[in-house]
Amino acid sequence: MTDTDDTGAPRERTLLAWHRTSLAIVIGSVALARYGAEVVGPQVALAAAPGLVLAVVASVLALVAYRVPHGGRASRRPIGGDGRRFVVLAAAVVSVGAACVLLVVSRIL
């Protein structure tokens, strides 16, 4: 294989990895909100909600970076970008982590 034989598979794997990671954060946020609302109250669900929203936003940003503006086909340029997806996904993880801390602290007290 040469450099010109790229079929887009690495870009597609990267996109799928972004979707997998975002989906894991969404599932964790939903599970935390459901469990936390039963145990502590709605404040845990409110703390987990930004994680859910930010994970969806990161997934959409990855999809936008994967698509070409014209035609909707995969581009051959790498999915790099300006780092917005990384910041949004990191904020989602921090939000879910804060909700977990809130849940644990409220259980201890």
TrEMBL record:
Keyword Transmembrane annotated: yes
Membrane topology: Multi-pass membrane protein
InterPro entries named in the record: DUF202
Domain DUF202: 6-67
Membrane-spanning segments: 21-37, 43-66, 86-108
UniProt KW keywords: Membrane, Transmembrane, Transmembrane helix
Pfam families per the UniProt record, alphabetical: DUF202
Subcellular location as annotated: Endomembrane system
Primary subcellular site in the record, as a coarse category: membrane
Protein name: DUF202 domain-containing protein
Species lineage: Bacteria, Bacillati, Actinomycetota, Actinomycetes, Micrococcales
